[in-house]
Amino acid sequence: MGKIIKIKQIDAFTNKTFSGNPAVVLFGEGLESTEMQDIAKEMNLSETAFLTNSNKADFKLRWFTPTTEVELCGHATIASLHFLHENNLIQNGASITFETLSGILKCKMENGKYFMQVPIYNSKVYYGNSKAIINSLGIDLNDINKNYPLTILENGYLYIPLQFLEALSKVNPNYKELLDISDNGKLFTAAVPFTLEKIDTESYAHLRFFGPYYGINEDPVTGSANGPLLLILMRLGLLKSDEDIISVQFEQGDFINRKGRIGVVYDKSTNELYISGEAITVLNGELHF
User: Is 47 a catalytic residue?
Assistant: First the structure.
């Protein structure tokens, strides 16, 4: 007899259907890793999240793209929190922990929003073949903000500062070329162009995320990229604050009709970084295999 598992497809970082970033979430207890990968391939979204039992946290959480398991995914974690809330396993005002490949992540639900702790990665100036990368993204060199360097995180996310929102809207990558230049993810794993020009007055910056190495040409709204952007802006001197707690909103997804908004909070006193957002279920179903 085959298996039947209930699934939800959830749009994260939005409160409107068909916006934000979609993820499938399900309870994956008893599934082999190969089955999880097959399910993620079948779902064909940027991430599918699997919740299982854990001896170290409230749940174990794993994320799979259609091609590989990843160490961190923001939007699928926000979707997982919404999934648990709809299954009456987390209530407003409650905290929860996930065992992940990135360590134990602290999360919570507060005032109808979901909060996820994001690891703090080391970063450094990128001295690789930036001209080739910029060309592969279809970016005019004159649109680069040359006052600030390209920055790479230890997980391989490469942040590229642009001057204007219009230039960001016109980014049109050659994905095969971008993957080749990355040496199949060995030099960098994703390209993240960003600008301080934004659409909403309450936002601080706008970014896009291109990750063919992960099997994701363009991710609509990427929590794992938006969180670290706050720290990068601080290190570049583009975000200054004397407050212990710094809170901003970033934008993503508008140029591919998947508008999303992400809250990012950094607590200097504890050196903790969180992303936050809303979520909405667009599909309830059963997976038969």
Answer: yes
